[in-house]
Amino acid sequence: MDTSCGAAANSASRLPKFHDYIVERALLDMAETNGGGNGLPLWRQQVQYAVGHTLNDYYSLTPGVRAQTPVQFLLERRWPPGFRSFSSMMHYWHVKNRICDTLVRLVGSSHEREVPFMLYEQWHVPVPELQMDLSIIFQLVWHSGGRGGSLNVQKFMVCGNADVARGFIHMANVFCRKTYGAPPESVEIHFLMEGERRRYDGNMYSLEASLDYLRLLSVLSGERGWGSGGCTSNGESRSAAGEDTWARHLLM
């Protein structure tokens, strides 16, 4: 995969925006509502924010400095200052200890001396087949040693959600094929509370299959102009305040 043309993905486009963070939030709210809740709990949003900042802080360091910096220290600076959004003090400490343990294992086991190709960056690429501009936030992307110098894409979620993971894989597939002419080498989804890593072959879906899936997601999430997360007639985003907040949890 030739990654030298990545800047072309952010060229101006007048197509309506398909925002990955709006789709993700809609799927997470739907899962919580179906489980008897009132939508994504505040503690999950706060912890996702802390995790995102911690990983960004950590991988922004040079590899030499990174090796001397405990990730626990960086997480502590970003962690929610109180426990009111958690169900109890015990829940607060359970989540904190679990997330900290998972991050320590994660950052100590891979990419120790590498510099990320993308680090919490938002990109967009026109997708004429859908009459949309796909806007996607990449948390961590690495150069892969696999076929054609391809990419390894990583996503980090506080709690596992198969629908969000599947949607992200399809979006990454469309983005990479449209931008670089080939799928990513792999997509890794990390479910932090579960301590689980799922690794998918980036070529597991064809472009046509992923386009079909994004059509479905656009209807479910209202990304074609219906609902608060839609777009105006000139294609500019008009996300609600809550959606903007969720985007900031994913992109600092």
What is this entry, summarized?
The protein is an alpha/beta fold. It is built from 8 helices and 6 strands, in the order βαααααβββαββαα.
Describe the structure.
With 252 residues, the chain is α/β, with parallel strands linked by helices. It has two domains: 14-21 and 114-246, no CATH class; 34-107, no CATH class. It is 43% helix and 17% strand. It has helices spanning 20-34, 42-60, 63-66, 71-78, 89-107, 162-180, 207-221, 241-250, and strands spanning 17-19, 118-127, 132-143, 151-157, 186-191, 196-201. Strands 1, 2, 3, 4, 5 and 6 form a six-stranded mixed sheet that branches. Helix 2 runs parallel beside helix 8. It is globular. It starts with 16 loop residues before the first strand and ends with a helix. Residues 224-244 and 246-252 have low confidence and may be disordered.
**Sheet with most strands:** 6 strands, mixed
The end-to-end span amounts to 28 Å
Backbone structural class: alpha/beta
Helix content: 40-55%
What are its keywords?
252 residues; alpha/beta; 2 domains; disordered C terminus; 17% strand; 6 strands
Topology:
Elements: E1 17-19, H1 20-34, H2 42-60, H3 63-66, H4 71-78, H5 89-107, E2 118-127, E3 132-143, E4 151-157, H6 162-180, E5 186-191, E6 196-201, H7 207-221, H8 241-250
Parallel strand pairs: 1-3, 4-5
Antiparallel strand pairs: 2-3, 3-4, 5-6
